[in-house]
Amino acid sequence: MSNTTGKIFTTTSFGTSHGKAIGAIVDGCPANLELSEEDIQKELNKRKPGTSKITSPRKESDKIELLSGVFNGKTDGTPICGVVYNNNQRSKDYESIKNTPRPGHGDYGWRTKYGNYNYNGGGRGSGRVTIGHVIGGAIAKKLLKDTYGIKVISHVVQIGDILAHSTDIDKIEKEVELNPVRCGDQEAAKAMEELILSKKAKGDSVGGIVETIATNVPAGIGEPVFGKLDGDIAQSLMNIGAVKGVEVGFGFDIARASASEINDEFYYEDGKVYTKTNSSGGILGGISNGMPIITRIAVKPTPSISIDQETIDYEKKENCIINIKGRHDPCICPRITTVSESSIAMVLADHMIRSGFIHPNNIEKTMNK
Question: Which domains are seen in the chain, by residue range?
Fold first, then answer.
């Protein structure tokens, strides 16, 4: 079972939804990066449950504790271990369905492959394990911002059939925190929230699309064949449990276009190279071109719903009906924004080090270039 991502800047995630704790070990972060628990906590706060009517009512503080890797307020080049303790598990909610795989979940595949399956809250397969992603992503975001001013920002652009109007990155950054949906379009956010709550009232859920934008990424990171930047980003996003589709730039819309419509033409301005458009989403030939990196993910509806569904009973070897209890998000999109940011930030940090933009041992050597 693989629990580690990255080649130089690596994050190893551990823990289960209803276990004692969840966390991550981040290795390969250069020394002398200013880092505090608060830097990580502010990211975890965006992901944690129980913050609004449209998230899971499970109450968790998700308080981070750094066990290693930081000395006198700075990273020291050794593995950084961060842990979050679970305080509000309700494992009894899952006892009645331990022999009945939940439709839309990984229960059946997990049990078929490993046999010994921790069914409480989905165990290692729960969305709660993305706490580890966010710990690694928070450190990566700090590294990227402090060295190159790189920002990674996610926002919800669609819930069900409700679309947000396109807007600029500055507006998104300012307004995404103003509503629980984490949408940069305030009017669309209201309609999205109403839709989510209507699904919740029926015991159902709804999916959507989340867009993530990375700005100030320099040209020249990524590889031309294996290890393409967009390939690694797509893999990192598909490794988020609820994601069933990934687009970079125009994505699937390019299938309906001609080259003359979507080719990004180059031009000089003040001695720097830009493209007139950004259909490629900031990546060409597997390598960044200096334009904003833009991705979108298709997020499925939360599969745990309280509507009766058909499934099987392992012990009785017969068909049956399942009705899932417990505390679940009626829409995963608002909380997955932070996980998407984290996933992309970890890839960018790893590639920035691999491509020589960030010194692998000491951030001060990067800053003094």
Answer: 4-367 (3.60.150.10)
